[in-house]
Amino acid sequence: MYTSLMLEIVEVVPGFRPQWEAFVEMWSDEEYAPLYSAMGDLASYLVDCYEQGKTAEFPALFSLVETQYGTDDNELKTLVALGLLETMQSVASHRPFGFQVFREWLGPRTLVSWDEVDEGMRRVAEWTREQNRPRWWQFWRRWTDFNPKKALAEVESPELKRILEGEFRDLGDE
């Protein structure tokens, strides 16, 4: 459905081409490929690039994303917000530089979405903490909070670690 967008992305981010081609090959037998997953791969790629100091592709990519985000296509906006922006925030939250470093490349529309995703994830984290806190009548239940840093440190597979970084956001000591 949004394969043309992904092809445009690969044109402006040629370093992502190997991951995109692997994704296309993996899903070639399916009628619909899960482009959210491809956007997640792109998000991980971008975080890795930033970590390596390779940001030359960022201006063209985020300009393209901003242009596409300006359409009335809500499915496209959801794909970008959840597939790309949320995953970038989650993956980068596990790195020393954090996820806010990417704000400088975002346009006004994607920046609004970026902030909405950030606020939404914080609300989800707070709700989850409250749900997992033992109630007064559960005095025998020891309260333990999930610690993504500790869990990720125990993961040996780089591929599994990449997936988990995209799924669990490190909110620090909040």
Describe this structure in words.
This protein is mainly α and about 170 residues long. The chain has one domain (about 5-165). The protein contains eight helices and no strands. It has helices at about 5-10, 15-25, 35-50, 60-70, 75-90, 110-130, 150-155, 160-165. Helix 3 runs parallel beside helix 5. The N and C termini lie far apart (about 40 Å). The model has no long low-confidence stretch (mean pLDDT about 85).
Task: Name its key features.
8 helices; globular; mainly alpha; 174 residues
- Work out the oligomeric state of the chains in this entry: single chain
Measured as a percent range, the helix fraction is: 55-70%
Q: How many independent structural domains?
A: 1
Portion of residues in beta strands equals: under 5%
The residue-averaged pLDDT reads 86
Ranges where pLDDT stays below 50 over 5 or more residues in a row are: none
Termini distance?
A: 39 Å
The SSE order reads: HHHHHHHH
Total number of beta strands: 0
Describe the secondary-structure layout:
Elements: H1 3-12, H2 17-26, H3 35-51, H4 58-69, H5 74-92, H6 108-132, H7 148-153, H8 158-167
Helix pairs in contact: 1-4, 3-5, 5-6, 5-8
Short description:
This protein is 63% helix and 0% strand. The chain is mostly helical and 174 residues long.
